[in-house]
Design brief:
547 residues, mainly alpha
Length: 547
């Protein structure tokens, strides 16, 4: 065998092992992270609370909104909101228990390793304490940070649960909820309540106490530590106790305006996927009916068993996938190139604004795409000119219609799988970090950059790589349907979140189906772009409802 070829395969084998290790570690790490879906549900619940409050503030001439409110909110919106917060609290407490158990396990391992080291320490052998191993030390720091964040979340949830309980007349239960939070901090610290959650819990317990106790700076603490409907409800109680009629009327007028905005946002969030999903189900039934009646002449059967003429072998596929996508995206860029860039320009990611984070993500993705496409080009240039149906992007009506239709069909399928997936993972499994940034960062420039990354750069590069190259290449070794499924699974795993594997694989199957039938990359690019656009639009609407 040629020495150069043997060396190339050896390097690819080493890179493959490194990639598999890194991807496996990333997937395992995502196991303990919360899904963004839980946070989305709370943001939507907050909009529901605003809209529900608007029911009690309806003025003459606004009765036409009542039916719409009732349809969206249900019979017991405050009880439903309490149930939603209790579910998230239960999930957070489970996460807290898992992190504590993991930290205890690490401490136990440290003690065992130190003990073994003492027994085996000889002039020729010394076992280092486990906390000197960088990976374990970093893991412990990350777990401690996650534990702190989870405990803070639990406290914030308990504060809000108390307000929901008070809203429903369960005053004693609410005060007990707040007092338990305060007592818990007192047990953990010798100082009086100092955390924001404990301070606001003390303020709220005083407001609902019989007789009421209004603490100093109660109003400023409420405005600083509460938001959304919860801030409104606390200020309403305070102004009523203080008999500040002007402030009370102004507050109610502001809430009435927020209620109208919340109702509009809820309508948009429900209508877009709802109507699109119904149309998608109808379209899917039509395609199935056409397939049953027309068989091989139907759209579902078009090109269904026609493989691509693939001039390269599995080694080229392996090279492009491992080197051009995973190694560059998971190891070279995040571990080597980008950290060096940050050091050279003396940048600290922890201090980045949302706008800087958005630009950093876009820059990282552009580098990944450029490098990945470069590896792809160098790997297949020896086979030029390629057969006619490779990497074609045709701006034709059929491709556009297939793209739009594929998006509509994807809606009900992915939503259904996501609902099942949510039950399976119980709010854990991680999510794409860009989603959290979009949800919380309501900065217009940042949002434009996020859209550029998710709705233009990602569809172009990922469809070129996974549908344009990987899927057709696999048809050399398996049937078209097998290539669709395999490429979809790799596409889903590449996003490195366990909870997203099933939904993304489902989306990938739709993307693969659209591409194999159209033989036009424009079609899956449209589906991909529309999907990401719809997701970001929902996040922006929900994030803007937090005030």
């Amino acid at each position: 065998m040629n020495t150069g070829l043997l060396l190339k395969r050896l390097i690819l084998a080493v890179l493959t092992i490194a990639v598999l290790l890194q991807v496996s570690l990333s997937l395992v790490e995502s196991w303990g992270k919360p899904q963004i879906q839980s946070r989305l549900e709370l943001y939507q619940t907050n909009l529901l609370l605003h809209a529900a409050e608007g029911q009690s503030l309806v003025t003459s001439g606004e009765e036409d909104l009542t039916a719409a409110r009732n349809a969206l909110l249900g019979d017991n919106p405050f009880e439903n909101a309490q149930n939603q917060y209790e579910q998230v609290l239960e999930t957070a407490q489970t996460t807290q228990s898992k992190i504590i158990a993991k930290l205890e396990q690490l401490s136990s391992n440290k003690d065992v390793a130190t003990s073994i080291g003492d027994e085996l320490a000889k002039p020729q052998m010394q076992i280092a304490p486990i906390d000197e191993v960088p990976m374990t030390s970093q893991q412990r720091k990350q777990l401690q940070k996650s534990l702190s964040q989870t405990e803070q979340l639990i406290d914030e949830l308990n504060v809000r649960l108390g307000l929901l309980q008070a809203q429903q007349g369960k005053t004693e239960v609410a005060i007990q909820t707040w007092n338990e939070l305060i007592e818990q901090e007192t047990l953990e610290s010798t100082a009086p309540a100092t955390t924001p959650s404990a301070q606001i819990a003390a303020v709220l317990a005083g407001l609902w106490h019989d007789p009421p106790r209004i603490l100093p700076d109660a109003e400023s603490k409420i405005q600083r530590n509460l938001d959304s409907w919860f801030q409104y409800r606390a200020l309403l109680q305070l102004y009523q106790l203080q008999q500040r009629q002007d402030a009370l009327l102004s507050l109610q007028a502001q809430e009435q305006q927020r209620a109208k905005q919340a109702l509009l946002k809820l309508t948009l969030i429900s209508a877009i996927p709802g109507i699109g999903g119904i149309v998608g189900v109808g379209l899917l039934l039509f395609l199935l009916g056409q397939w049953l009646l027309q068989g091989e002449r139907s759209l579902l059967a078009t090109n269904s068993d026609m493989p691509w003429d693939t001039p390269w072998d599995g080694e080229t596929i392996w090279q492009v996938l491992i080197l051009g996508f995973f190694f560059i995206g998971q190891i070279l860029l995040p571990i080597f190139i980008l950290p060096i860039f940050l050091v050279v320009f003396q940048l600290e990611p922890a201090n980045f604004t949302v706008r800087m984070q958005a630009f950093y993500i876009l820059m990282s993705y552009v580098l990944l795409a450029a490098a990945g496409l470069g590896v792809l080009y160098l790997s297949i240039k020896h086979f030029f000119p390629l057969p006619e149906d490779w990497f074609q992007i045709k701006f034709r009506r059929k491709g556009i219609l297939l793209g739009l239709g594929g998006y509509l069909v994807a809606l009900p399928l992915v939503i259904l799988v996501s609902l099942i997936n949510q039950k399976l993972w119980q709010g854990q499994g991680g999510s794409n970090p860009i989603l959290s940034l979009v949800l919380e960062g309501q900065d217009t420039v940042a949002i434009v950059i996020f859209f550029s990354t998710a709705c233009i750069a990602a569809p172009l590069f990922e469809e070129f790589m996974f549908r344009g190259f990987l899927l057709p290449s696999l048809t050399r070794y398996m049937p078209v349907w097998g290539a669709i499924v395999t490429s979809s699974l790799i596409f889903a795993i590449a996003h490195l979140s366990l909870s997203e594997v099933l939904p993304l694989a489902t989306l990938g199957i739709v993307l693969g189906f659209v591409y194999t039938r159209s033989r036009n990359l424009l079609a899956p690019m449209i589906v991909h772009s529309l999907w990401n656009s719809g997701t970001l639009l929902s996040l922006i609407i929900l994030g803007s409802g937090g005030s």
